[in-house]
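Students often ask what a 'structure token' actually looks like in practice. Rather than answer in the abstract, let us consider Transposase DDE domain-containing protein, a protein of 124 residues. Its sequence is given first.
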Amino acid sequence: MSLTGGNRNDITQLLPLLDKVPAVAGRVGCPRRRPDAVLADRGYDHDKYRRLLWQRGIRPVIAERGQPHGSGLGIFRWVVERTIAWLHGFRRLRIRWERRDDIHEAFLGLATCLITHRHVQRLC
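Now compare that with the structural description of the same chain:
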């Protein structure tokens, strides 16, 4: 995870984020270092980044600008929106008030632990 300024475009962090993907355990042999596909909304619809993803062997599943809503990511978008809504349940994370990014990341980690704890309690 990386924090950037609030006025920076998210697309600038796409490739650094993919470079930080850790090795995934699986079959014996060379561990996987990249995903099969990247799901993204209209904000990431740029030909340059689509080409860069294809060059890395990653299939871009990106909603296209100008297309009607409902023709893109479907249920996968719901998962992302739901997760953001859970995090916004913690007022301190809605707007970043802390000047230091390590404090903000600590609150984000704490919120993630609390959300997970709530869901585990419901299962037990």
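One point worth highlighting: Residues 37 and 59 are 4 Å apart (CA to CA). Ask yourself how you might have guessed this from the sequence alone, and why that guess would often be unreliable.
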